[in-house]
Structure to design on (471 residues):
């Protein structure tokens, strides 16, 4: 028997299942929800197609983009020809952060020199801090000295509240799901080096033109079926047990009375769920995962009766609005209207607000950024909340992120929360799936190279901790 059981049908589980099946393993994928896609999904409300979150990616996210190619949905995403971020401020003209064709790091010099939210002196200070951050390597501090926050490090490099709020948090909040003041320096440095400074085009932003379900969940079902993966939806894994030949997964609900056995089990569920599943067999790992906290994301969905925003997306400075995305076409908004989604990362405060409080706060904020919104009628205002959207990317988090392999043969881990080196992103999830699959295939004495040429990406997933120090 060369059987792999994958628990979880998100990006990590999908990538792992495809790799294992295409290499010749017999794969069963278990997913508690009635759909695939994990945290990247869509739903319909009042005739509107709504993504649970505004997930973006970068040109350098080769693993995620490669998975979309395998799913046949790469035509439903677009990547900017050149990094361009319109920055909006109340009562001020739009400023555009756009890279040039020069090689890194000079590709951002002109954008920073013209960045009016900062004073001229502030721009110079920010440039010096950016160069210092590019040279920083993970763990580069005195022995016994705790990892500082990204904000603390920036403050030591002459970055005050003005620079951090107007520049550094533009990248830290959406990528780390925390402001710089609370975020891990190591992960923050990785993001800036990899996404902005490793090459001129690395940070070009990719968008989902269609809905997440059309891009990920639905095509994944077809790709898994074509690869021979048995997918069981609505199947809740509740317990893992060792057997003489491997691991058995026991669950609850209809059709889950009998355990599902495999030589290898890949646990690809959120870290809190993984901690519960692993506790009987790996109590120390379970306790460690219990210390890996979460951070929420809130999305607001506003339909205006007319067009009020001319940009496909924009960032906000000096406003509670963080990022705005035009989802009119993807969401199926009525003709003549405009559907804008506001993405709020690190949204502990917004999680505690009811819909009316959010409406009272954010509709005036949108009017301050988009003057045409003052005359427009708000036809719909919805809020979606992910209370545990990502792991908390705070200092010291690296010690809590486990590798793919566990101390128990036959049990492997996958998920954006594992030690991929990346923060909790689409790329991290897919890399983790490739890494777990490579270990599973080796345990089954199958060459990972047989996984349709995906072994290179699997190797990247395994070696990223070493690679990130050289970016």
């Amino acid at each position: 028997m060369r059987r792999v059981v994958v628990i979880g049908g998100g990006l990590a589980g999908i990538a792992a299942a495809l790799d294992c099946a295409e290499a010749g393993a017999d794969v069963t994928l278990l997913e508690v929800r009635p759909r695939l896609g994990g945290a990247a999904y869509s739903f319909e409300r009042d005739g509107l197609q709504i993504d649970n979150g505004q997930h973006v990616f970068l040109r350098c996210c080769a693993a995620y983009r490669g998975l979309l190619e395998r799913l046949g949905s790469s035509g439903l995403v677009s990547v900017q020809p050149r990094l361009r971020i319109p920055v909006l401020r109340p009562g001020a003209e739009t400023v555009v952060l756009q890279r040039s064709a020069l090689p890194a790091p000079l590709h951002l010099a002109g954008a920073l020199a013209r960045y009016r939210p900062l004073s001229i002196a502030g721009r110079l200070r920010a440039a010096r801090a950016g160069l210092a951050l590019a040279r920083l390597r993970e763990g580069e501090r005195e022995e016994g000295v705790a990892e500082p926050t990204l904000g603390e490090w920036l403050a030591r490099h002459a970055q005050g509240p003005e620079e951090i709020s107007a520049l550094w948090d533009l990248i830290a909040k959406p990528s780390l799901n925390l402001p710089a003041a609370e975020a891990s320096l190591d992960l923050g440095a990785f993001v800036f080096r990899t996404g902005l400074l490793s090459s001129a085009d690395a940070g070009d932003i990719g968008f989902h033109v269609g809905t997440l379900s059309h891009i990920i969940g639905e095509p994944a079902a077809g790709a898994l079926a074509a690869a021979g993966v048995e997918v069981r939806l609505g199947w809740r894994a509740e317990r893992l047990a060792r057997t003489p030949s491997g691991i058995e997964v026991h669950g609850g609900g209809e059709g889950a009375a009998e355990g599902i056995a495999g030589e290898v089990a890949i646990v690809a569920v959120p870290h809190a769920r993984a901690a519960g599943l692993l506790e009987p067999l790996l109590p120390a790992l379970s306790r460690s995962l219990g210390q890996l906290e979460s951070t929420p994301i809130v999305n607001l969905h506003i339909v205006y009766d007319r067009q009020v925003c001319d940009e496909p997306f924009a960032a906000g400075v000096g406003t509670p609005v963080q990022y705005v995305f035009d989802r009119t076409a993807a969401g199926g908004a009525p003709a003549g209207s405009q559907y804008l989604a506001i993405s709020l990362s690190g949204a502990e405060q917004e999680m505690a607000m009811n819909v009316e409080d959010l409406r009272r706060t954010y509709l005036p904020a949108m009017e301050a950024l988009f003057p045409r919104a003052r005359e427009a009628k708000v036809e719909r205002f919805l809020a979606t909340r992910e209370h545990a959207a990502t792991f908390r990317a705070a200092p010291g988090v690296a010690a809590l992120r486990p590798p793919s392999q566990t101390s128990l043969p036959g049990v492997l881990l996958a998920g954006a929360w594992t030690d991929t080196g990346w923060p909790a992103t689409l790329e991290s999830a897919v890399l983790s799936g490739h890494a777990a699959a490579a270990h599973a295939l080796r345990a089954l004495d199958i060459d990972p190279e047989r996984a349709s040429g995906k072994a290179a990406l699997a190797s990247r997933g395994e070696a990223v901790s070493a690679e990130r120090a050289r970016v």
